[in-house]
User: Fold this.
Amino acid sequence: MTERAFWIEGEGRPSRWLVTCDHATNRVPAWVGGGNLGIGAADMARHIAYDLGASGLASRLAALLDAPAIFSDFSRLVIDPNRGEDDPTLLMRLYDGTVIPANKHADPAERNRRLERLHRPYHEALSRLAAGHPDRCICAIHSFTPQLRGRPMRPWQVGILYSWQDVRLGPPMVQACRAAGWVTGENQPYDGHLEGDSIDRHALQKGRPNILIEVRNDLIADTAGQADWAARLAPVITATLAVAGL
Assistant:
């Protein structure tokens, strides 16, 4: 049985929106280090391996938006689908204080093997889904940890990320989230544009309206939190698209 690189939910749903979840799981394929990157289970359960809660949130949000959704099915530590193929952080060797032994000496052949079997199939499927609606909008769902090691606590509940190349949805979404009473970061806790990342590749380069939503992972750690935040976000996303006149 071939190990999958991704899965899709609701492919036939009619919405303009396509919901993406680049860091859905912490799975390590058996052909990568025998299914082990050389770090402990506690580290594999941390945000360094995947976006905790993001998969459940994305699934519920897509259902509420009546939109298709795509999810990667490999750990970002195996190879990061939210990085361009030439990005130096594509294979992380050190992340938030943890050394990744299986990546430390990964050579170009190993890098290409992971690209061929995981990264490229995911992006090929995402590209196909994105092209499946003539007026496609992309909503990327991520989560962030409340605190990196040795860093201050992050105060935001939600972060809205966007590029200066396309400000149609990002700024009004920030305003709408703040109006809802949520502590909202604008291009926080991360910068909203990274050349070659998923939004750049499938939205910015194609002129598609887009938004990237980061939710603090302690808020979506269980199914109740995921359902709650999906129900909160869905109407705000829909209203923001309307307000933007898109």
Q: What stands out?
A: The longest helix spans residues 108-130. Residues 6-243 form a domain with the Aminopeptidase fold (CATH 3.40.630.40). Strands lie at 6-9, 17-21, 69-72, 94-95, 98-99, 137-144, 158-161, 184-186, 210-216. The first strand starts at residue 6 and ends at 9.
